[in-house]
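Q: My labmate handed me this sequence with no annotations at all. I'd like to see what the chain might look like in three dimensions before we decide whether it's worth expressing. Could you predict it?
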Amino acid sequence: MTPASDTALETLHETAMGIFTGTLAACNIAAAFDRRLRFEENRLQRLLPDGSGPETIDLSSFKRIFVIAIGKAAGPMLETLLSRIKRRKGLRGICCSSRMPKDRNWRIRYFEGGHPLPNEDSFAAARAALVLLRKAKRDTLVLFLISGGGSAICDLPLDPQITLEETRAFHQALLACGAPINEINTLRKHFSAVKGGRLAMAAPEAAKISLLLPDVPLRTLDALSSGPTSPDHSTVNEVRELIAKYDLAAKLPPSVRAFFDRADLPESPGNKAWRPPFFSKAGRSAAEGSRRTAVTSMTGEDEAFRDSVFEILLSSQDLVENARTLARQAGYFTVVDNSCDDWDYADAARYLLERFHALRKVHPRLCLISVGEVTVTLTRTPGAGGRNQQFALACALELEKYPGEGLTVLSAGSDGIDGNTQSAGAIADPTTAARARAFGFDPEESLAAFNACPLFTAIGDAVVTGPTGHNLRDLRLLIADRSCGAATFPAATARTATGE
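A: Here is what I predict for the chain of 500 residues:
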């Protein structure tokens, strides 16, 4: 194999970035919105995924329309909705995102919630949402716009005696324990006054439509922002098992530990004996198979959920399809492997690199694509970094064994933020570790200290996009190219998986 020059590796870096940024650009919220919903005067048409629609909702039959937008994409989702909906009479809402939108509507109250830990606005937004929803009656339509990050961005403890500082400590303990997101959110649902279906329960008589941009596996959509509008099928017993499994009791503030120790710890809303296919925790769900799913009836649930509608606007599957399209346009043989979702970052790195090395023996121009999230168990106070940079640094140390070869790994979050940094992730290649040492870094120590961001920033390989308005999980690209030729990305031909 011809050794890869610095210029060739730079080209590979550009290729990886081109696929990543092109993928995000193709996941357009406004276009996805228009594929599912159309507002015509006083009518809302839902374009059903099975082709049997449209289903028409007469907006004039509702005296009031409430909008609750929560999560990292709350701003773009709300902006899109407000630009489409013609009806203004009785329209009011709450928007809570990690970033205050530039353009604001006087009918909406805006809050800048904290992430990954809640802040004062997180509490204020949750209180405001509950107050507004309790005004909803049978003549009210509630539109929930839910995206990832809402678990911290909008939160309020069930126990009013638990403070913001104690709530932040609770969230931090969950983030550090290494549990997968569905288990973390099981604990959050039972802790929060606005999670696990409790926002829906605050407006039991109202008609409800939840528009979703999930950052969770489609088989566990009730984990999105800890399921504020979804019935919860986890139980208090499961909560206590998870606290024991991850040895959390000693890591929680005394007030939080006392809350979970209560003999009368309340169950979250939801039929614990019945789990609809949409929220199945095992196997391949209908949502995962079709990628475009609406749920309109939950006959086994509380009345507050029975007429709820859930629409998936975009998902991580769109990341896969767009990345695959762009990689193929650049001349790469593409393989998708999402099997390491929710794995420990080191295990995921080993697995994907082993698969990568096996595949590239057969395919000299290869792009291995993986979406989902890896986990990081913090064993010490972390430095600056996140799961994507941790994964990339682990890959860099392994890639060092292949000097001179055209290999690149990109791992980045679709929201533009990785952990406690302003980077989305990082790019690694066979020279990463050596270049870091030349700048005075010890890559092994940076990995052990969960402090990868300074290293990648110093050598110019941090992926920095700024907030993207998305949160569709993480994208990993493992690229091998013996020729290391330049690639171009005709974005006009990129499409979304939920298109057509």
